[in-house]
Structures are given as structure tokens and as C-alpha cells.
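Recall the central idea of this unit: under ordinary conditions, the amino acid sequence of a chain determines the structure it adopts. In this exercise we apply that idea directly, starting from the sequence alone.
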Amino acid sequence: MDLRRAIIEEIPRLRRFARSLVNDSGAADDLVQDCLERALGRLHLFRGKTNIRAWLFTILRNCYLNQRRGFQRRPPEVPFDERQESKLGTLPEQGQGQTIRDLGQALGRLPDQQREVVLLIGLEGMSYRETAQILDVPVGTVMSRLSRGRESLRVMMGEMTAPDPITDAELNAYVDGELDARSRAGIEVWLAGDAADAARVAAYRQQNEQLHNLFGAIIDQPIPAEMSDLVMQSPPRYRRPVWIPIAAALALLLVGAAGGWGLRDQRAAISIAGPPDYVERAIGAHLVYVPEILHPVEVTASQEDHLIAWLSNRLGRPLRPPRLVSAGFQLVGGRLLAESGLPAAQFMYEDDSGRRITVYVRAYDGKDTAFRFTSKGDVSAFYWIDEPFAYALTGGMPRAELLTISRAVFEDLTQ
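Accordingly, the structure predicted from this sequence is:
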């Protein structure tokens, strides 16, 4: 696959999605430019993946979230700006144009988690599974947010009544083509006899159509030259994965074992050099809080936005918990810690079997380092520096498994 050509083909969709997230066309293009630069610098991370659209949308969303956290505020809404009307496209009719403007206002009043799901599925045509991949949440969470978001839009735009939670998920899946033929036929029988639900389905479909009328013209606009030039001309900025030096170090150890005393100095240096103080504090915090049943964290994952804003503010720079669903771990929450009078953060994760790991983060200005390993009793930690933070991943599991999770942390945070 010619990745650069494939990236260029996705630029119109990236611009449309960015424009639906922010209320200014210039800011939207800046967001896409930032996304493209990050993607080009991380092309090596795309190897083995097949859905470049989902990958690029994930990067774009992360850029958007990072910008918002940097300002520590969000625009109050996504208004339909009369001055931007010509840039979005021609509105079909006066009456429908007013409805589309109402939709733009209503979108801005949706919670972010609901708004992005409505846009990804209703505007971009993403499947539930692709949307879950981009947002790094279960498919069930996507369906729940979509149901609440669509119904909130319908109520805000004066469309009938509140939802019936019993059939809501099925009706949304029917609208989005997520049902098999048998289930679809059953829904159609139901709709033939239920005028209220038939009206809801019509309203959901109309929302999708209006989203395309509101933002659709962007996808047909010429790709800005600076974007296509960036993709085709700039060399990919390959960043050597931080686990490569680990393999080299292990190779040296193996050679030393075979060659006798030849590498004893190197082995001594590896064994004598202990971890920095922050790693000891990370392990200590892990041992204290992981066994907790009632209060393992200060702020739970259900308040993730508050957790991110709070810890970013205390550490003095934008911060977010890594998403580790692909590694089998869900975020439990996080807490603020103290390190020599300075703030640090701890994020806790749990897998289906109840095993817990923690990611310790503190601000750090200095040279990046490779992964390093240490252990204490029954727990082990991989630690590294990736400016502007120092990290320590701690867990009571085999070294090889912990290294795999460390790679997942690094890859997610560098997207």
C-alpha cells in the first residue's frame, strides 16, 4: 500500500471531521495539519494495521483533545457561523437551512463523548466497531453514547418526546445498518405498527442527512496544497522504538555469558546502577493503593474528563491516561501523588481477571531514555523518560508481559 497516497485520500474526511469539532475553518485546518505531521512521524507504528482511516481519525481526535487540555477549556458550543456558511456549502432551502443551523447549535450543547460518537457514525459513516477503535471504548459504550446523543438532539430540536430505553439501541442499530437481515425485518414489522418509533427512526435518519448538509461540502473542496505537499515531500520522522535498546542490552548480556569475563564491567554497571528515586516512589504507591477495595483511586474513570483536567493543571502540562484496552486493561481511575514536594500522577488499570497495574507519571525536562527494568518483591516495573514526562509502569506479572504493556503505553501516548 502506498501509505502517503492513502493518507492524502483521507484528508477531505479529516477536514470535515475537524470542522465538525471546532467552530472555525482555519482552526480545523490547523488541527488536520497537526494530525498529518504526527501521522508522518509515526508511520512505523502503522505497520501491520489495515484501517488507515481509523488510525488517522484516532490521531486527529488525540490532537484535538491535547489542544483542548492545553487551553483547559472548551468552546461553549459549535455554532453555525453565518460568516462560515459559504465555506460549509449551500443550504438547500430556507426552512431546512434553519433546521441545520439548529442542529449545529444543538451539537455544541452535547457532551463531548456523545457528540463525537454522533459525528463519527452519523457524519463519517463509521461502523460501531470502528468508532469503538477510534475512541478506545467497548462497542456497548459507543451504542449507549449514540443513543443518548441522538435523543438529546431530537429533544433539543423539538422532535417529539423522550426515548424509550427498551428499544433505543435496536432502533439506532437499524438506522446505522448494524443489524442482520432477520433482525432488520423484525424491526420493520415493529415500526409498521408503532408510529412513535417510526417517527424516531425518521428523525435519526434526518439527523444524518442534516449532518451531511451541514458539513458535507467540505469533503469536495480541493485539498490545500500545504497538506498534500507535507504528505508527499516530507520524509517520515522515524522514531526508534524505545524497546530496541533493550534487545541490544539483552544481546550483550548473552554474549557476556558466553564470553566469560569479557563483559563483566558492562554487567556490573547494569546491576549496580539502581532506578531513580521516582521509580521507588512509583512502586511504593503501587503497593499501597492496588490492594484497596473501596478507594483504590481518588477520581474514577467515569469522571475521566475531570481527572485529566485536574492532573494536567497540577502537573503544569497536558496529560492523559494511556488507553490500554488493546492490552486487556480498563482504566479504573487516578490520583494525585507527591514527590519531594512536587506533584505526580498515578493511573490505575484492571483486567477481566482483577489484576491491576499502575502508570506513574511526573513532569520531567531532559533527554529521553530507553525502557529500563527493576523489581521489588513480587512486583516489577519498566520505567523510561519521554519528554515532558517520566513514566513507570508497575505490575505483579512476568517481565515479558509487562514489557508488552509498556510498549502499548508508549505507542498510545506517542500517537
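Residues 274-413 form a domain with the Phosphorylase Kinase; domain 1 fold (CATH 3.30.200.100).
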